[in-house]
Amino acid sequence: MLSIQHLTKTYGSFQALHSVTMTAHDGEVFGLLGPNGAGKTTLLRILATLLRPTGGTATLNGHDILRDPEAVRRSVGVVNGGMGLPARLTGREVLRSFATLYGLSRAQADARISELDDRLELGRTLDVRAGEYSTGMKQKVVIARAVIHDPPVLILDEAASGLDIFARRTLLDFVHATRAPGRLTLYSTHVMSEVEEVCDRVAILHQGELLNVSTIPDVLERTGTGSLERAFFALVRPEAPHAR
Ligand SMILES: Nc1ncnc2c1ncn2[C@@H]1O[C@H](COP(=O)(O)OP(=O)(O)OP(=O)(O)O)[C@@H](O)[C@H]1O
User: Fold this and answer.
1) CATH code for the domain of 225
2) Is residue 241 situated within a structural domain?
3) Would you say residue 243 lies in a domain?
4) Which atom of ligand 1 is nearest to the CA of 34?
5) Which family does this protein fall into (predicted)?
6) Whose CA is nearest to atom 2 of ligand 1?
7) 211 domain-assigned
8) Residue 156 C-alpha to ligand 1 middle, in angstroms?
9) How far is the CA of 208 from the centre of ligand 1 (A)?
10) Could you tell me where the beta strands, DSSP code E, fall in the chain?
11) 32 ligand 1 Cβ < 6 A
12) What is the pLDDT along the chain (244 residues), one digit of tens a residue?
């Protein structure tokens, strides 16, 4: 469902991605794990067609990101840190307006909003203006907005950051529920426990290099470690001693 071939990105003379090649499959929640500056956002923005790669390409849901960016955009819902909400609109108004953009009728939009209310526990968020939202309320509406058109591919970039434990739990349960035939969720984070909880496989990215793509048990076995955190250090600094 996602095939990335030799994707590179340079910003001036700085190389943010070094020939990344990997695949992610239909039905997976696929983790992208790496510390600050690893290149996660750069990679996900390229996949969402928000940024052009310097080299290489990728195919998402059967569409090439360079040759058919419009079709890619229709196939994906994207949540990243840079998305604001209009302060004067309520959550319901935001979601209805996005539903209209995607061609849903009012009845279809309201049915979808009701479904997302159940899944994301939107509650009173729907009828409060965005200017009055807490971080958790805002993030829930941003996620609902990203999936209002029920896209087969969902890209979540550090979506849990800043959320309290209740909102984080709702988000992780929502991500769990996206695991279904015909769907792919890309879940980027630097928090190992989130990957351990929701991801079927994980790509470990460090300084723009892809160090490993596998299931969590496989990366633990490959590195001879007992936790994802230990495995990460073993991959990043293979020469340094690390507790197993
Ligand atoms: N527009 C830009 N111009 C120059 N350098 C950039 C630009 N965007 C990103 N970078 C650099 O590219 C590298 C990768 O950044 P990116 O945001 O993709 O990492 P990340 O893994 O998402 O990290 P974080 O968790 O901190 O967001 C970093 O060193 C960053 O400073």
Assistant:
1) 3.40.50.300
2) no
3) no
4) 21
5) Belongs to the ABC transporter superfamily.
6) 11
7) yes
8) 16
9) 9
10) 2-11, 14-24, 29-33, 55-60, 63-64, 76-79, 153-157, 184-189, 201-206, 209-214
11) no
12) 999 999 999 999 999 999 999 999 999 999 999 988 999 999 999 999 999 999 999 999 999 999 999 999 999 999 887 668 999 999 999 999 999 999 999 999 999 999 999 999 999 999 999 999 988 889 899 999 999 999 999 999 998 888 888 888 888 999 998 999 999 999 999 888 899 999 999 999 999 999 999 999 999 999 999 889 999 989 988 776 655 5
Name the residue range of residue 192's domain: 2-236
User: Which of 42, 46, 156 should be mutated for ligand 1, with most atoms under 8 A from CB?
Assistant: 42
In angstroms, what is the span from residue 52 Cα to ligand 1's centroid? 14
Q: Out of 9, 17, 33, 36, give the residue to mutate to test ligand 1, the one with the largest number of ligand atoms within 8 Å of its CB.
A: 36
Assigned domain for 129 exists: yes
d(CA 220, CA 234): 10
Question: Considering its fold, how many domains does the chain have in total?
Answer: 1
Residue 136, helix vs strand vs coil: helix
Query: Which residues are 187's β-sheet partners?
Result: 31, 156
- Decide: 229 and 195 in contact? Cβ < 8 Å: no
CB-based burial label for 157 (10 Å; 0-12, 13-18, 19+): buried
Tell me the CA–centroid distance for residue 37 and ligand 1, in Å.
5
Distance (Å) from CA 42 to ligand 1 centroid: 6
